Amino acid sequence: MIRYRPLWETMARKKATTYTLRVIYGMSHATVQRLQANLPVSTHTLDKLCKIFNCQIEEIVEYVPDGEL
């Protein structure tokens, strides 16, 4: 399973909120909700997040085998 816990940690370090993603960077409410629920998002969205936070993909997503949740 892919989960976005590193994104929330990165956002906390950079003092960003979901409001920042939606209002400042134009990310849709639905996309933010998908991230919060660990649902699939497009590679375009992942690329945009890496650009916004000037970080590597590992600071946005992590892979967790299904049995380790």
From TrEMBL:
Residues 7-66 form the HTH cro/C1-type domain. It comes from the Bacteria. InterPro entries: Cro/C1-type_HTH, Lambda_DNA-bd_dom_sf. One of its GO terms (molecular function) is DNA binding. Pfam families: HTH_26. This is XRE family transcriptional regulator. It comes from Anaerotruncus colihominis.
